[in-house]
Write a structure and sequence with these properties.
single chain, 18% strand, four-stranded antiparallel sheet, v583 fold, globular, 14 strands, alpha+beta
């Protein structure tokens, strides 16, 4: 089987998936993480001293939320001494945005494949426009908001789920309305809120939660990250395929995984996204690329959806790195699924829409921009895939 055939097989496995959000699960019940483990975006850190400040700040908040530490400062000391450990969320089938960190007792959106059984992926509740874990701030306000999200807001969300909400149709609705499913999600977000209202037995009676949901245009993003990750996971394990099954950054490094080499991160030092700040600070305050939301762009949406409508450049069309069309997305003209082998051949890696965080962990989000993924992780993955294919044919 050629690598194009292998990529197509992985792609077909991903596309024959119907992600449905139908419940919440506690992180500890679905990830088997130890009580002292917290989950972060992107590839692993080499040690506690390498943890970027925004993720460290969020880990401190999560540790206090979890009851692992009596205070935010005590939590930082416990992380430094490795009494509290941080591990990549995607290695546990969880995706988390920007600097957000997941702890064992946090309720997670649970998304399953309605067509092929109980394979599931998970994501925390989106923090909206309030002080949020994803911003990487070490504050009591963030802790209070996490508690509110995971109790009062959770109750409303659970009350409106009914038999579950299929996510691909909402993504298509969003795309048709001008969303890109990453940097812009207000249309799909409004559709989610309306589904919840319609499915709640008496509507949503909590005005504060309803206002929060309606005022959070990114409310769909975490759900779509989980849906995308579910489709990627279904593509794992195809020999000879470089289909990308994981992508993310931790502010220090960015990385990907591919179908033929499950669980292996291919990484490269993370530079900041290119974009304007909303505050008056020097460019040096920008953190390197961060967040598991890169799975959306590595699937072919987000920044890639915008690029797909651009004319070819000297490096060719972005479709050159993509594998095929999803039947539900045909009306959009977008090709989905990115292959590391195709990236290696065409010399053009995906772009990712990302928020820009303050590397000092003091001001949270500084702005937004585009991150150009480096070619090297894709090239290294492609080399390993081809080498393993050759050895297996000998």
């Amino acid at each position: 089987m050629t690598h194009q055939q292998a990529d197509r097989l992985a792609f077909d496995r991903a596309m024959v998936t119907q992600p449905v959000w139908n419940r919440f699960d506690l992180a500890r019940d679905v990830t088997d993480i130890a009580d002292n483990v917290l989950l972060h975006a992107g590839p692993p850190f080499p040690g506690p001293g390498a943890i970027t400040r925004p993720i460290l700040n969020s880990a401190c908040v999560a540790a206090v939320y979890e009851g692992l530490a009596p205070s935010l400062d005590a939590a930082e000391d416990m992380i430094s001494s490795e009494e509290i450990l941080l591990k990549p969320a995607q290695d546990a089938n969880v995706v988390t945005p920007l600097a957000a960190v997941v702890s064992g007792s946090m309720p997670l959106h649970s998304v399953y494949d309605a067509w092929r059984g109980q394979h599931r992926t998970f994501a925390p509740i989106n923090g909206g426009s309030r002080p949020s874990l994803r911003l990487g701030l070490k504050s009591r306000a963030v802790l209070d908001h996490v508690k509110w999200l995971n109790t009062r807001c959770l109750d409303v969300l659970q009350g409106g789920l009914a038999e579950g909400i299929a996510l691909v149709p909402l993504a298509v609705e969003g795309l048709k309305g001008g969303d890109d499913c990453h940097g812009r999600t207000p249309v799909a977000g409004a559709a989610v809120v309306q589904e919840l209202i319609d499915r709640s037995p008496n509507g949503i009676g909590d005005d504060e939660v309803l206002d929060f949901l309606k005022g959070s245009p990114s409310i769909f993003l975490n759900l779509w990250m989980a849906a995308t990750k579910l489709m990627m996971i279904r593509a794992e394990g195809v020999q000879g395929s470089g289909f990308v099954t994981a992508a993310g950054g931790n502010g220090r490094d960015v990385g990907i995984q591919v179908s033929a080499v499950p669980g292996r991160w291919y990484t490269f030092p993370a530079t900041p996204p290119e974009g304007a700040f909303d505050v008056d600070l020097p460019p040096s305050r920008a953190l390197g690329a961060i967040g598991d939301s890169a799975v959306v762009d590595a699937f072919g949406l987000g920044a890639m959806a915008k690029m797909g409508n651009e004319p070819p450049t000297s490096h060719g069309s972005v479709h050159g790195m993509s594998v095929g069309e999803h039947p539900y997305f045909k009306a959009t003209g977008l090709k989905l699924g990115i292959s590391a082998l195709a990236v290696s051949e065409c010399g053009r890696a995906p772009q990712v829409s990302l928020g820009i965080l303050d590397r000092e962990g003091e001001l949270g989000r500084l702005g937004g921009g585009l991150y150009q993924m480096p070619n090297l992780p894709f090239e290294q993955a492609a080399e390993d895939v081809l080498a393993s294919q050759q050895s297996s044919s000998c």
